[in-house]
Amino acid sequence: MRNAPHTRQQASTPGPAVVAVCDSATLRIQRACAGPDSTGACPEVAVGEIVPCAGCLLYGTVFGESSPYRVGSQMTLCPVLLASMVGAEESPVAV
Fold first, then answer.
1. What pTM does this model have?
2. The predicted structure's pLDDT at residue 87
């Protein structure tokens, strides 16, 4: 089950990168994501809700050597933001 539509307004400035969001079982691209809004939050859900890419694989240069990047199934923080803050190679959820 996916989250209900967000109630926050989407930021006008896109995040730091565009990544491909892929189904972890089929590896099919489901959508593209520009990353967090200007506050660092996912613009598609309310703060504290599970992000729409939870359980998926992300591909993009922001993840460096850790691409593809597996997003935890209960992730509530934007993984693009986390990767840019700590470095994807240090992340425990990298594939």
1. 0.68
2. 59
